[in-house]
Design goal:
Length: 439
């Protein structure tokens, strides 16, 4: 039985899927294609996060670009844009911990809720892919499986290796039916069915990682060959489950580059060491199409290309359409690496208006002379589903607050995001994507 059907059975749901009309008035379509690329928009996230898993998958199948399958197919292939797809993609980071189930002080099931949110992510375009990046996969070192007050640190920027997968993300109540690995594979399969690629954020700062064994944990050391081998293999395992992209935090500083602006904690791999690690991940997973995106790694194109990166952030924003279009034109022959257009990054703490965001997204989607020369782009969950006004992308990366007013998870989801103005903004984002997907 495939992982998606096992997921349904784990929640005591029928695996027979049925057409859903729950969001017929909120279904958006690509403009100009002979095949409709469909998703749900003009909403607040709670509209779909409060569905149960069966209702969500009924909706997923209803949005199918092709035929309606009564059961989820056993074989799903990722959207095929060639080995260098990541050079042109739109990366959308979803903080899957923030949208996890919050009950009392516990936190779980982020991957299940992210599966639901996929129905509101635009599918890939004719010429380039949309790729969802998950903020968390591995256990974090500051209180995994718990939420805390909004002013108490519970940073996502620290992880444990050789310790399985995060209690914030996995539903451990159903692992006797569907394992953590199969839950992640179900997510990847549903992404691919939706016409979306998927990846995850990782850390390279040594003092922000722990290596765990029974009754023991130690700080990661890049000079320890066993630690390096573990790091590679942990990432290969995820690629083998269906993930296709890795976003590398602090990648700019690998090899001691520009350390005056380094804000991580601990040593970083050497340049040639990083080349080896990225190459080994591709080799061991037998996947030459893996996209590796580096945070802020975009001011020395040859350096990062030769390191094995596909793209990097923080070189140009989408504020100036003509500047981005001219950059696209100047790099059109660079098919293996190009810097990305930034809408918002994970360090964002406020200050970008809805209008500025929409302008940046418009630039990211349309600033080129030919769609085949498009630059990649980077955006956050906040750029599609605006967060409440007293928080920010960086705040929910550094903390894990429960925003429930009555102790229920439903209330947390409703209060994590803005309300009607957020739904109106989500509509405006969808209109931009609807005009871009057939290019």
């Amino acid at each position: 039985m495939n992982s998606v059907n096992k997921l349904l059975e784990a929640y005591n749901k029928d695996i027979i899927l049925k057409k859903s009309d729950k969001f017929s008035d909120k279904t958006y379509r690509s403009i100009g294609c002979y095949k409709n690329k469909k998703w749900i928009a003009g909403i607040v996230p709670s509209d779909i996060l409060n569905l149960d898993i069966k209702e969500s998958l009924d909706l997923t199948m209803t949005l199918s670009e092709g035929e309606f399958y009564e059961t989820f197919p056993d074989t799903i292939n990722t959207p095929n844009y060639g080995d260098n797809w990541g050079r042109f993609a739109n990366y959308i980071e979803i903080n899957n911990r923030a949208i996890a189930d919050m009950e009392a002080d516990r936190c779980c099931c982020g991957i299940i809720n992210t599966i639901k949110l996929l129905n509101a992510i635009p599918p890939s375009a004719k010429s380039w892919a949309n790729c969802v990046i998950l903020s968390q996969i591995f256990p974090n070192i500051f209180g995994d499986g718990y939420n805390k007050a909004p002013d108490v640190e519970n940073s996502i920027y620290g992880l444990k290796l050789n310790s399985g997968y995060s209690s914030n993300i996995i539903d451990f109540n159903i692992v006797d039916i569907i394992s953590p690995e199969e839950q992640l594979k179900a997510f990847c399969d549903i992404c691919h069915f939706r016409g979306i690629k998927c990846g995850f954020r990782t850390i390279i700062s040594a003092d922000q990682m722990k290596v765990c064994s029974i009754n023991h944990e130690e700080t990661f050391d890049w000079k320890n060959p066993q630690h390096q081998e573990l790091y590679i293999n942990e990432h290969v395992k995820l690629i083998n489950l269906g993930f296709e992209a890795i976003f590398v935090d602090s990648a700019k500083h690998i090899g001691g580059y520009d350390m005056n602006n380094y804000t991580g904690v601990g040593a970083l791999p050497e340049y040639h060491q990083a080349q080896y690690i990225f190459n080994e991940i591709r080799q061991r997973s037998a996947n030459s199409a893996i996209s590796i995106a580096g945070e802020k790694s975009s001011d020395d194109f040859e350096r990062y290309k030769n390191m094995g990166l596909t793209t990097g952030t923080d070189f140009i924003t989408g504020d100036d359409f003509e500047s981005v279009r001219n950059l696209s034109e100047s790099l059109k022959y660079n098919r293996d690496y190009a810097p990305g257009v930034e809408i918002e990054n994970d360090n964002y703490e406020g200050g970008i208006s809805y209008e500025q965001r929409l302008n940046r997204i418009n630039t990211a989607l349309f600033a080129y002379f030919r769609a085949s020369d498009k630059l990649p782009s980077f955006m956050q969950m906040n750029d599609i589903f605006p967060l409440r006004y007293d928080t920010s992308t960086h705040h929910i990366m550094m903390t894990n607050p429960n925003y429930s007013l009555d102790g229920t998870n439903k209330s947390h989801i409703e209060n994590l995001f803005t309300k009607q103005d957020g739904a109106n903004y989500n509509h405006d984002v969808a209109v931009l994507f609807s005009h871009a997907l057939c290019l």
